[in-house]
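User: Quick sanity check before I run a bigger batch. Here is a single chain. Can you write out its predicted 3D structure?
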Amino acid sequence: MNPILYWTLRAILVPFFLIYFRLQRTGHEHLPRKGPLLLASNHRSFLDPFVIGTLVRRPVYYMAKRELFEKRWQALLLNALGAFPVDRGAGDQDAMSTARAILERGDCVVVFPEGTRVRPGPLGDPRRGVGRLALETGAPVAPVAVIGSDAVRRGWRIRPRKVRIRVGRPLLFPTVEHCSPTLAAGVTERIWACISLQWDWLGGVSDISRQTPARAGEVASRRRSPRAERTHDGTGQTGHFRHENAHDEVRAA
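Assistant: Done. Predicted structure follows.
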């Protein structure tokens, strides 16, 4: 990352997003200012990493598909802005190692569990990489949802569409030395459920076929009740996800 280029571009983009896209950020006060942090979000637009980056006042790193690094000038620009390549559709050990190294030195990484952009309609299916990272590093995982970014771009035009982003309290999971696929998948499902809840709060399209009747009723009641927005933190809990609960989740997985 090039700090000068990163902070210069950020100083330009943040006011631009706030004015042109009427960017609305909810819940960013939950995020720690220091230490490792995983920001796990749905993915709708090429703008998402930059929009999510406005949640914290520190550099964020993110994975980008390897095809974007084929042109030298583009690779240099992306690297300067904190991006590193990942092979989509495969377990990219180099990308995972890079993400672990960034987290271990106390920095922030943005991950998109869906693995690619999904639009339009409901959220896609998550991959277990985010669960594996959470278990191998012990980094807190903040569930994030972005809505409206997919309507911004039309061809080469960047249109003034409202973009909203919501983040819940970070989830904590115990660190394990050997993370099995089943364990990673179980933790990923827990994280994805919290991301889905942020998405529901924003009014995103839900896949009803994936919801239990109780879950569907809960979402409907929250959309009808503006008071619920003020009394919950957006993760479906009234406080931090406690460490002992994390152990229960891992055992359940």
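The beta strands are 24-26, 37-41, 60-65, 83-86, 108-111, 141-147, 153-154, 157-158, 164-167.

User: Great, the batch can go ahead then.
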